[in-house]
Design brief:
It is a single chain. Helix content is about 45%, strand content about 20%. It is an alpha/beta fold. It has one domain: Rossmann fold (3-Layer(aba) Sandwich). A 4-stranded parallel sheet has the order 2-1-3-4, with helices on both faces. β3, α3 and β4 form a beta-alpha-beta unit. α2 packs parallel to α3. The radius of gyration is 14 Å and the shape is globular.
Length: about 120
């Protein structure tokens, strides 16, 4: 008889930084669904502008922050620096610049499903 699956880890509160909030919600929703047996991830908010990062991270104190693929490497570093200044132990991930434009939404979801477990398990 198979051992029962362990309960999903979490909950992990996630804030995204994406100029297209509906797309962020949709793609994160697909990732949450794909990983729900392993992790409980709650998308608590989205920042449409870099200026929203500090107030929203302060308000929600998320466990995780993703910067989307429309941000340059330099902008992603700024976003992550702001978030880490407020919550030093936050888990951060930058989706590679241009991924959504070059390969589409399915590629973003696939990418997140590959990367997020290592991030949440503390391997990255």
């Amino acid at each position: 008889m198979a051992a029962p699956s362990p309960a999903p880890r979490g909950p992990f509160r996630l804030v995204t930084v994406n100029t297209a909030p509906e797309r962020a919600k949709r793609l994160v929703g697909r990732m949450v669904e794909a990983l729900k047996d392993r992790y409980t991830i709650i998308h608590v908010d989205n920042c449409e502008k870099i200026e929203e990062v500090a107030p929203k991270v302060t308000e929600h104190m998320p466990d995780v922050l993703f910067s989307a693929s429309m941000w340059t490497d330099e902008q992603a570093k700024e976003i992550h620096s702001i978030a880490r200044g407020i919550r030093p132990d936050i888990k951060l991930h930058a989706i590679p610049e241009g991924l959504q434009v070059q390969r589409g939404p399915d590629a973003v979801v696939e990418y997140l499903c590959e990367k997020v477990p290592g991030l949440l398990d503390g391997e990255q």
